[in-house]
Amino acid sequence: MLDVRKLRYFIAVADDLHFGRAAQRLHLAQPALTRQISALETQLGFSLFERSSRNVSLTREGLAFLPYARNALEQLSLAQSMAGKLATGTAGHLSLGYASSVALSDRFTQALQHFAQAYPDIRLNLIEEASTAQWTQLRDGTLDIGLSRLPPPAEYHELYAQPLEHEPLVLALPANDPLCQQHDVSLAQLQERQLVLFPADQGTGLNDTIERLFNVHHLQLNRGPSGRQTTSIIALVAAGQGVALLPACVQALEKRGVCYRPLREPEATIELLAISRREGRSPAAEAFLHIVSQQNPGA
C-alpha cells in the first residue's frame, strides 16, 4: 500500500521541481526527502524524476502518475472531512415520517428548508405514513422522527411526543353548498351532513380529534365515505360526497369546486407532534427536532 506521506512529498517536489525548496516547505532535511522519493520510486517500479546537477524534471511516468497522486490525497481529505461530520452528526441520513396533512404545514416545509441549508451533508428520506404506522417504525428504528397528529399510546413507552403547535380546523365544503355563504360554521350545523374521514383502520389523529370534538359538544357524528389521503378526501368533497374537517393548512391546495370556512368553536384545533425515541436519538435527529421546534410558521 502506498504511503500517503510519500505521496505528499512527491507532489511537493513535482510542484517546485526543486528538492531543496520542497524540503524547506515540508520542514525536512533535503537528504531525508531524497530518500523518501527514492523509496517511493522503488515501490512504484519506475522513476518519478529526471535529476541532474542543475535541473529536476518529471519523467514521462512521473507526469502520468501525478494527477492520480493528487486525486488520492484529495479523496483522503474528503474522507477525513466526512468522518468528522459523521462523528458530530452533521452528515449521514435522516428518515422522517409524516402524516398526510402534515406535508401542507408551513412548519413542516420551513423545517425541511432550514435543515437542508444547515446540514447539506445529511440526506433526508421522507416517508408518508399514518400515525399508527409511524409508531411501529420509530420503535424498530426504520424511522428517526415522525410528524403526527396523534400521540402514541402508553404501550409505546419508549417513544416521546413533543408538541409543536395547535392548528385550527376548517370545514371543506362543495362550492355550491349553502354554508359557503356564511362567514363561519358551527359544529352543530354539521350533524345532518356526512363527514368524509380517513378510514377507521388507518389510525389518524384527525379522526381522533374530530370524534373527540363531537363527543365534547354532545353531537352526532354522521360518517360518510372515506379517503386514505388528504387529497382524496378533498376530491370527495369536491364531488359532493360530503364535507370534511381538516387542518387549516390544506387551504393551500385551492381545489376547484371546494370552499373552506372557519369553525366558530375556538377549541376546534388539531395538534402537531414530533415523535421520536426517548433514548438513542442520532445527532441528526436531535438537530432536526431542534429546528422544527424553533420554526415560526407565521413568520
Would you write up a description of this structure?
This protein is α/β, with parallel strands linked by helices. The protein has 3 domains: 4-87, Orthogonal Bundle (Arc Repressor Mutant, subunit A); 95-164 and 278-294, Periplasmic binding protein-like II (D-Maltodextrin-Binding Protein, domain 2, 3-Layer(aba) Sandwich); 166-270, Periplasmic binding protein-like II (D-Maltodextrin-Binding Protein, domain 2, 3-Layer(aba) Sandwich), CATH 3.40.190. Helix content is 40%, strand content 22%. The chain has 9 helices and 11 strands. Strand 3, helix 5 (106-118) and strand 4 (121-128) form a beta-alpha-beta unit. The radius of gyration is 31 Å and the shape is rod-shaped. The model has no long low-confidence stretch (mean pLDDT 90). Residues 2-59 form the HTH lysR-type domain. Belongs to the LysR transcriptional regulatory family. It comes from Pseudomonas fontis.
